[in-house]
Amino acid sequence: MVNRKDLNPDASPQAAFGARLRSSREARGWTQEDLSTHMGVSSGHISGVETTRKTPSLRFAKAADRAFGLEGTVDTFERQWREMQNGSLLEGFPEYVGYEERAVEIRIFESGLVPGPLQTREYARALADFAVQRGDITPEQATERVDFLIERQAALVRTPPPIVFAVLDESCIRRPIGGPDVMAGQFARLIEFAKEPNTSFQIAPFALGGRTPFRRLVHLLTMTDRTLMSYVESQTQSHLERELSSVVPLMRNYHQLQVEAASQAESVAMIEELRKGPM
């Protein structure tokens, strides 16, 4: 082949994406023009992605998955794109988000901070800026992190929407992030969330003490085929689990927490009370 550029998938995540695209295409015996027809993308753009002259978009990655029949599988181009774009996130989190986008029920528990699906952009930006100040991430990664969150939230607005259960430790609403204006907007967002027809919102008050079963972020997903999975995260590690022997005890603890936590009306009243006073 004339002017064929050798690819080194180890050179960068973008190079790995391009090399995989080329090898997948050639394994089918397709030319770039053939793949162009299957993806609805110009052959020039495909050539640019394969040789790293062009950066793939999320739309491009999803089109590649459709073309190669990878939708709904574990090792998709979309997953690779998310990991490439979000190196500042914990390993395994982009994979979890891929499942979250397809779940019919999402159960969330968080302690200390408002969980991502419920955050405003301003709240998320303040958290990212703090991470930059600590030297944990770069300013560019902070922007990527916020953009990724907004994209994640948008994926939850679908038809039919997932049922989302959220139980927040009281510390989530007591800890000021980003100043009074940011917190005012965040409180308004939580109240709006509680009003949505496909949501349940509760606060686990400090008074529960040791009866609160979780000490860190726990997400539980129910998929369309009713399979269950859990995602647990600490400061530096995350774990996505599909084994029922591990997920079912977490689900049981979550249901017990819902019984112990304040009702939705009581939880909203707690936030309304905080809105009246200075942070």
Overall structural class, as computed from helix and strand content, comes to alpha/beta
Shape: elongated
What integer value in Å does the Rg equal? 21 Å
The low-confidence runs, each spanning 5 or more residues with pLDDT under 50, are: none
| Mean pLDDT level | 89
Instruction: Quickly give the CATH architecture of the largest domain.
Output: 2-Layer Sandwich
Tally of contiguous helical segments:
12
Profile the largest sheet. Answer: 6 strands, mixed
N- and C-termini, Cα separation: 66 Å
Which fold name corresponds to the CATH topology of the largest domain?
Endonuclease, Chain A
Percentage beta strand? 5-15%
CATH class placement of the largest domain: Alpha Beta
Strand order of the largest sheet: 3-2-1-4-5-6
Task: Say how many strands there are.
Answer: 6
CATH homologous superfamily descriptor of the largest domain: Endonuclease Chain A
Helix share, percent = 40-55%
List the defining traits of the structure above.
single chain, 279 residues, alpha/beta, 434 Repressor (Amino-terminal Domain), Endonuclease, Chain A, six-stranded mixed sheet, 12 helices
Structure in words:
This protein is an alpha/beta fold and 279 residues long. It folds into two domains: 8-66, lambda repressor-like DNA-binding domains (434 Repressor (Amino-terminal Domain)), CATH 1.10.260; 93-118 and 155-276, Endonuclease, Chain A (2-Layer Sandwich). The chain has helices at residues 13-27, 32-39, 43-50, 58-68, 77-85, 93-100, 121-134, 139-155, 171-174, 180-195, 244-260, 264-276, and strands at 105-110, 163-169, 199-204, 217-222, 228-233, 238-241. The mean pLDDT is 89.
